[in-house]
Amino acid sequence: MLKFILKRLGSAVGVLFAASLLLYVLVINSGDPLGDLRESNAKNREYLMQQRIDYMNLEQPWYLRYITWLGGVGRCFVGSCDLGKNVNGIEVTGLLANAASSTLRLVLLATIIAAILGIAIGVLTAVRQYSGLDYLVTFLTFLFFSLPVFWAAVLLKEYMAIGYNNWLEDPQISIGTSILIGVVVGLALQMLLAGSLKRRGLTFIITAVFVPLLLQYSVWLNFYRYPQMGPAILVVLTLLLALSATAMTVGLKEKKVLYPALITVVLVLGMYYATFWLLQDANTWLLVIGGALAVAVPALIGKFMGGRLSKAAASVSALVGFVGAGLTVLDHIFRAWPGFLDLKGRPIATIGSSTANLGGGYWDSFLDNATQLLLPTIVLAIISLASYSRYTRSSMLEVQQQDYIRTARSKGLSERTVIFRHAFRNALIPIATIAAFDFAGLIGGAVVTETVFGWKGMGDLFITGLHAIDPAPVMAFFLVTGTAAVLFNLLADIVYALLDPRIRV
Amino acid sequence: MSNTNEKAPENLTSIAEVEDAKLAATTEQSKSQSRIVLERFLRHKPAMVSAVVLVLVTLLAFTSIGFGPVPGWWKQSYLDAGSVVNGGKPTFSLLPTWLGGSGIAWGDHPFGQDSVGKDYFALVMNGTQKSIIIGVVVGLVGTFLGAVIGAVAGYFRGWVDEVLMRITDLFIVIPLLVLAAVLGQIAGRGSTSIIALAVVLGLVTWTGLARLVRGEILSLREREYVSAAQAMGSRTSRVIFKHLLPNTIGVIVVNATFAIAGAILLESSLSFLGFGVQQPESSLGLLISQYQNAFLTRPWLFWWPGMTIVVIALAVNFLGDGLRDAFDPRQTGKRRRRRAGLFAMPTRKEKP
Asked: Which residues does the UniProt record annotate as the domain ABC transmembrane type-1 (chain A) (predicted)?
């Protein structure tokens, strides 16, 4: 294994080196870096040109410039990177650090959401192959594959963001609209839950009646400007989650899993009151530590109470604890929402990564970041989601044909155990490698998405660099993406070998 | 070896003869592999619908405004500015009069006009032509390169394979959009021809197919018929192009289809970023980027090219899906039993 990794790393370094040389030559030959100055009428034109020549070392031949750049990169190994200066004489190293953190913030959330949702949808459509749901999802994934990103992003900006902001000025939902929403949600839900015709009909009728009532009630409460949740709803939601998670993993009959989950629900309620004043003015560290505790403590409870099912019990309890903590935070966000609306009247932003001079407390800037992230995250997630669900679906279908699945069924195992224990876990193996690729690709930036949403990230660094025929930022961009691609490729191979014992390296 | 089948004639002595006689007695025609694939493909409804849509869109784009010296039936040119009628609103309508629309009407400017009064239908049709040409050229160049490089690497193995695959890695390590943008900028400065851009894009989109074909060839080259061909003294090029590549035709065709859809999307992204098609040439992506600021006042300038891209890319992707199902050797019977594995998926060529 070690030999394999070293060999792969060796060839990867060679490839990276050659690719950097190729890209460098291509970029400096893609135009005239002094072009805009040659045509300008500025009085100090000569001075400006000389200044730019100094910044970019233009008087040197290209190989010397490349070697200088490579030397600067080499110094990263001794802790003092020097990636050169851009056309305006600003150190690229500093620019890169800002851009990378901004892009990471954008991409991380979108990847996680896309992976979780996409895998869930993929499993569901594979289990119900050739159902109405399957055909609908297949059509939608193909649609998302065929969507020009910038076009979809501009539509989202115009209709979703601006439409929502306008609507929020005076949130009203007419009776007709709410009935329509009810019917649509009802149709979607009966498709999702499936079952016999009677069950589907019942699902549809109940939803189609319940949703319009709920919508009208929320309008009457003025929920959209003054949202509230409170401990009662928190307990009901976590309880529902505890029951359904137990039912999905081992079934409700297994008290060894059910009881720790229920204890966690009680703990969540306790913590809701205990942390109430603490969370009024929170900070990021508090949230991170709280989140970690909300996973660790229930997991320990599950582990000790679970007996032979300790693994399942621990994960179910941890999930309940985590979601409970999330809902507690959501409750505080709800409380901060009216105050936030006073600061930022049109909440969903279409451009930039944060609002300047917002003021307000922790929750206000938290909400500000969230509303700025919302649209780009939706765009990125929708497109990654399509490929995740498609890959998961074909991987699940592949696995379901295997002999060991037939063996599991003929042993008399329940369908739930067959799907989740035997099929799903094997289907995840190729998905793990795809997730690695996907993440590596996304670090390289959502170049187009960043441009549409005016996000100063890696993509922006690259585009402005290329427009100015400025190799330093383009090469800095490549350094990060190329290294990420190589490392995640290697990681994918190693993970594959670890997960699948049939693979020998 | 007495015959066990009572229907078979008595005087046959070998199993092969019995089987031959049985075959001759049946009315069913045996089908060639390509015939089976074609029939499966024709049964794939989404692919058939897509094929019809694609042919219609292509015909509309090429006949309406004409292509090259051939004039089309559409009376207005995409170059002429004119007086803006009714704010440039589209005259195309499908809503019947009794629903408050103006009936099914085509009108003078079905897709509306831009701010200087150019007919937008002609502009979009021009862009559609260019996008289709780019897609097809990129698909052809990329597929040819990928197939040949993959086949050569897989057939010769050893140092040839090593070198070619490291070159492939080289192209994979640089993000496609980056490479395409840099090359697009160079091509754009050299000439404004879309063919130059398309060829350049084809030069960077062959990597995925090369890897797939190499994998296929690595296993195919161990077959007996390849040894037979080599033993008979066939030239290497003949073995590769006559015996090996035709057997990977499924992978190649399916990937070529998805490559066309990917290329159209990649071109639109590049043009949107300003590294793709340059004025005075036009493409659907360039139309969107030119008119994106007009969204609030003239939303149709934004809608029509975008919808056209979506329709073309969707149809091509469904076509590829149908082809993949048709070429899948594991399929039997009328009902599609299962999809092909991971070997080909519609892929976005550029990262979002």
From this structure: 100-496
